[in-house]
Amino acid sequence: MLLIGNNSVVSIDYKLTLESGEVVDQSPEGEPLVYLHGASNIIPGLEEALVGKTDGAELTVNVAPEKAYGERHEEGVQVVPREAFQGVDQIEPGMQFQAEGPQGPQMIMVVAIEGDEVTVDANHPLSGKTLTFEVKVLSVREATAEEIEHGHAH
Question: Which GO molecular function annotations are given, in alphabetical order (predicted)?
Answer without folding.
Answer: peptidyl-prolyl cis-trans isomerase activity
